[in-house]
Fold these 4 entries.
Entry 1:
Amino acid sequence: MSLVTITATENGSAEQHRQWCESLEAGSILFFPKSPIALADSDLQFLRGQQQTDSSLHKNIAYKPKSNELTGVDTKTANPAAVDRLRAIMRNYSQSVTAFLTGFLSPYAGQWQLDYASFRPQEEEGRDLPLRRRNDLLHTDAFPTRPTHGARILRFFNNIHPTRTRDWIVSDPFRSVAAKYAPAEIALPQPDSGIGRAFKSLATGIGLGAAAPALKRSPYDDFMMRFHNFLKENRAFQSSCSKYDYQFPAGSSWMVYTDMVPHAVLCGQYALEQTYLVAPQAMVAPQHAPLTVLQELTGARLI
Ligand code: SIN
Ligand code: FE
C-alpha cells in the first residue's frame, strides 16, 4: 500500500495526469497535505457549528448534485435557513472538487458519473452503528441501492476539522484480499443466469425500458456487496491482515478507489467527501480493477 504525496497540482503534463490515474488504479492513496479545494472560513465555521446549533443537522448528510438535494436532514425540525446554507455549501464543494479533478485526472474527463457528496460532522471514534454500517472496520465500498455495473468508486475527502487529524487504517488492495478469501470463504460471482437475461428482455418488452437493467444488480455488484459484508464480519481478517496507518491532517485532502482498497476510519470529526463512478473503459491500468480480477478468477463475464 502506498501513499503518493502531491504538493504541486497546477500545470501537470498529460503524462503526469495519466500517472496519477495509474497510481489510484494500482491502489495508492493520493494525498494533498494542503487541500486544493478552497472553502471560505465562514462556511467552515458554519459546518463545524452545526452540532451545537441545530441538532437535526448533526447526522451524516448526503448531497445529490444532480438534483441539488440534501438527504438525512430532518426538515420538520431543521432551521430552513440553515438547510439552505448547507445545501449551497455542498453544491459549491461538489462543483469545486469536480472542476479540480477535471484537470487533475484529465484521462477520465467525460467518463465519470458525478455521484453523491457528503458532510460527516460526527466524531467517528466510538460510534454506535450496526456492524455492516460501521466504518471503523476495514471494508471495501459497495452501495446496497446503487449498483455500479463495473464502474469504479472514486472518493475525494477533505478533513475540515480545525486542528485534529482524521485517522485511517488501510489494507492491501483488492487482488490480494480477493485471491486469499474467494472462493473458499466467499462464493465467487456466478455469470448472469438465463433467468436474469429473461427478466431483462421481459422488462424491456413490457416497457420498463432501459431503467430496468440499471436497477438490477449484476453478478459483479452482488459479489462486491457480499465482499463488503464478509470483510466487516470476518474477525480473522480484521485482526490479522496487513495494516497501514494514515493520519490525514486538518486542512488536507486525499482520494482513493474505495472499492479496491480496504479502509476504516478510527477517529476524526468533520469531513467533506465527493464520490465519482468512473466508467470501466476509462481505466488506464484495467488489470487492477476488481471487475478484471473477478473475471480472471471466474473465467466469465460478470456485467
Ligand atoms: C468510509 O468510506 O468508510 C468512510 C471514511 C471516512 O469517513 O473517513
Ligand atoms: Fe468506506
Entry 2:
Amino acid sequence: MKILLVEDDPTLGDAVMVALRQAGFAADWARDGVQADHALADFSYDAVLLDLGLPRLEGLDVLRRLRKRGATLPVMILTARDSVEDRVRGLDAGADDYLLKPFALDEMLARLRALLRRAHGVADAEIRVGRLCFDSVKRQARIDNAPLALSAREIEVLEILLNHADRVTAKEAIADRLAGWDEGVGENAVEVYIHRLRRKLEGSGVSIRTLRGLGYVLELAR
Ligand code: CA
C-alpha cells in the first residue's frame, strides 16, 4: 500500500515518513499543495495524510480537486487543535477522518490502518498464495499461522510481487515503487531484497522465480 503525505513542516514530515516506512508502507511526501495535486493526479495511492495550511494551494483545495476527479481513496486531515471550523469544512469537502496536531505517531498509524481497512474490507486486504497470506493493512505476512519476520522494504517488495502473482514483475517496476522522491533505490538493491525474501520463503511452498531480462514471478513452488 502506498500513502501520500502532504505536509509543509519539515520536522513533522520527516517523523511521519519514518513512521510510515517503519510500519511497512511505501510513501511519497509532497511539501506543498500544488505538488500534492500533481502527485494525486499522476500516481496511484491508497490513502492521503493531508495538512490543511499549505504553500501554493490549500489542503482543502487539494481535497476538493481530488474528489472532483472522482477519486474515492481515504483522506485523513492533519490539523491544529484550535481550528474546529477547518475540521468541519474538511469533512464537508470529502475527508474521511482527521487527526489533531500534535499527535502520537502510533495513533496516526492505527487510524490510518482503520481507514484502509474500511476502504478495502478485511477480505480485500488479504492476499493469499498457497500457504502464504499477506495482510496489506497490518503489513504482515504469515506462512500458515506463523508470522514472517520481514523488514519494511521486504514487505513492500513482497506486496508488489503478490499483487502480480503468477505474472512477471519487472525489476525496474519494483525499484520505482520503492523509490521515494528523495532517494533512489537501485536495481541492485532490488536483487538483495529478492534474495532475502527467497530465503525467508524457503519451505513455504511459494517461490520467486527469476526470468532473466524480464523480472520476477511469485508462484507456487513446483
Ligand atoms: Ca502546514
Entry 3:
Amino acid sequence: MGRTGLFPPMLSDAFGRTVTDLRVSVTKRCNFSCVYCHDEGLGPVDRPRSAHGEEMTPAEIERVVGVAREFGVRSVKFTGGEPLVRTDLEEIVARTVRQVPDVSLTTNGSMLAARAERLRDAGLKRINVSIDSIDPAEFRAIRHGALAPVLEGVREAIRVGLVPVKLNMVVFRPTVDRIPEMVEYVGRGEGLKLQLIQFMPELVGHQDWRVDMGEVTRWLEAHASRVIVREMHHRKVYVVGGAEVEVVDPVGNADFCANCHRVRVTHKGELKGCLNRDDDLIATRGLDDAALREAFQRVVRWRVPYYGVYIPMASVTATNGPSAPAPTRGATG
Ligand code: SAM
Ligand code: SF4
C-alpha cells in the first residue's frame, strides 16, 4: 500500500475500533524499582545514559511514527521503563513532532526538573508523572526512590507550561487509603490532574494487593460536584473539590477495551495490538516502509475485543497470527 494523499485510510480492526493513538516504549531500563512493576529488564540505571543496543534509535522511532501518521494516528505517548534514562529523549520528541504534533510522556519524574524546559522546547505537549503517595517514606517504600526530586520535576513541568501535569497514582492495597489525601493535594495545586490507575496483578503477581475499584468509583461519585465523560476509553472525569480525577481500570473491563484506539510499540520496535497480550508482537526493525505499513495493518487485524477473552496462542504465524474469537461482552480477565 502506498501513500494515499490527503485522506489516509484509518486503521480499523474487525470490531470497528479505529487506531488514533500510539504508545511507544523507548526503553526497558529504569532508575526506580517499583514494587508493582517488572520493567527493569535491561538493568537499573542511576543516571541518564545513551540508547541501549536493543532500543530503537530516534530515526527508527520517527519512521514508525511517520507510518502511523499515514494511517491517521493523531497522538503519541512515550513510556518505558523510564523514558528519561535516555539522553536522546529530546531528539526523539523533536523528530516525533515533525510527524505527529500531539506528543506526551509518562515519567517517574525523578530526572525531569533539569530537562522539562528542553523537552517543552523539543515540542512535548503534556506529561504524566507517577506519584503513588505524597508521603516521602511511603513513596520510597513503593517506588524505591526519593519523592522530593519528583515533586521538583512536577513544579518545573508546570512552570514551563507542560500543563496540565497528570499525576498517575496506582491504586493498590498500600495506597487506597491515601486517595482522599491525594485528591486534596491535586485540588490545591494549579495545573495538576489525577489519574487513579488500577493495579494490574498479572504484571507481578500479588493478587492480595488488588482493591475493589468499584468502591473507589463510588467514593468519587459521592464526593464529585460534576462528572464528565472523555472520548478515550469513555473514561469519566470526577471533579472533586478543585481536583479533576480520572479512573483508569483496564482489568476485566470490557468497556475499556471496547473504546481502546491504541497500538503499542515496544522498545525493540515491535508492534503490539493490546496492553494485555504478548502473543501478537510484530518486529519492525529492518522492514522497508511497505512492509512496515503491512505490519501495522496486520497487528490491527489481529486485535481482539475485550480483555481476557482471547485464547492465549501457542504459536503465532506470520500469515495468520493469533485467532480472534467472537466478542464476549463483560468477560473478565
Ligand atoms: N517509568 C515511568 C513511570 O513510572 O511513570 C513510565 C513507565 S510505567 C510502566 C507507566 C505507568 O504504569 C506508571 O504510572 C506506573 O505507575 C504504572 N504501572 C506499573 N506497573 C503497574 C501495575 N502492576 N499496575 C498498574 N499500573 C502499573
Ligand atoms: Fe516501572 Fe516506572 Fe517504576 Fe520504573 S518508575 S519501576 S518503569 S513503574
Entry 4:
Amino acid sequence: MTPRAVSPDRLSQARKAVADAGLSALLVTPGPDLRWLTGYQALPLERLTCLVLPADGEPFLVAPGLEVPAVEASSVPSLGIEVIGWGETEDPYAMVAGRLPSSGGRVALANRMWAEQVLRFRAALPAAEQSLASEVLGDLRARKSPDEVDALRRAGQAIDRVHSRMAEFLVPGRTEREAGREIAAAILAEGHETVDFVIVGSGPNGASPHHEVGGRVLEPGDVVVVDIGGTTAEGYCSDCTRMYTLGEPPEEFATYFAVLHQAQVAACDHARPGVTAESVDSAAREVITAAGYGEFFVHRTGHGIGVETHEEPYIVEGNTTVLEPGMAFSIEPGIYLPGQHGARIEDIVVATEGGIERLNVTDRQYVVLGG
Ligand code: ZN
Ligand code: ZN
C-alpha cells in the first residue's frame, strides 16, 4: 500500500466539531474515518487500534505494540498525534478510558467500528452515552476540498479509460466471469490500487441491479450493464456505469434507454448547490414515471463518494440535505425489466458554485459492440 498524506486541516476541523457538538471524545478504529483523518490504512485486526480525539486535550492513537512500526511509517506522527503502543497482556480499552479527561458525557464511535469493540468500549466507559462519528464527520467528509475533488477527478478518468476499452472484454462466447476478470485487471492497469467491484449484468442478469458476475455466456443481441469501480493510490473511489449491446439491441431496450438517458440528464441539469438531495432523485424519477416505467426504477438515484464508494449525501427521497459546493455523488437512475434485461447510467458529479461538474465524461449513449 502506498503511504497516503492528508492535510492536517481535517484533524483540526474534526477536533473543533467534537467540541462544538458537546462530545467528550471521538473514537476512530481502522476504516474510512481513520483513513480520511490521518491517511493511515491500519489493518482491521481484533487487537485494538484507535485514534482518540478528546474534546479537551491532545489527540492520541493506541495501537498494538507490533503495529507501532506501521503507525510510525504512516502520516500519523507528522500530524502531531501521540502514538501509544500496548502489550499483549494489557487492556487497551481501559487504557483509552483512563486517558480520557471525562468518563461520562457522550462518546462518538466510528460508524464502521466492529460490534465487539463497541461493546468493550461500552463496558470500559459505562457512564458514557455512545453515538455515531458521522454526526461530526459526515458533513466534513461530504464537502470535498479542492485536493479531494482533484483526486476524485483522477479516479473518474481512470475508470473512464476502462470503459473505453470495453470492446476488448465483452466478447460473445465468454462468460460474464471471464469478461469480469479481464475488466478487473484493466481497473488496476488503468490507475487504481484496488478493484472494489465489477458488475457485468448480461441479458436477464442486468435486471438485478447488484448482480456481479456469473457463468452466463455473452450472446449476440445481449444488453449488458457494466458498473465498475476501484480505489486509487490516493485513496479515492471511482464508480461508473455504462451500457453496452452486442450487436443491435431488442426494440424495447432502445425505447426505455431513451427515457433513462433523459432522466439522467434531467437529474444532472437539476443538481446544484441550494437544492436538496431528494429533489435530484425526484428530477430523475419524474421522467421515468411519466414514461410508465416508474415501478421498474427500484433504487435511489445516487450516493456520495470519496474515501468510500457509498457515503453521504445519499440522493434519495426523504434526504433534505441541501447540496453545497464540493459535495460529490453519483447520479445513476436505472430501469430493470425482470427476466429480460435492464439499464443504468451512472456518472460521479461534484457540485460547483453554479452547478455540477461531471467526473465521468465518456458518452452516456449505449455502445453497440461488434456482436
Ligand atoms: Zn456503480
Ligand atoms: Zn454508484
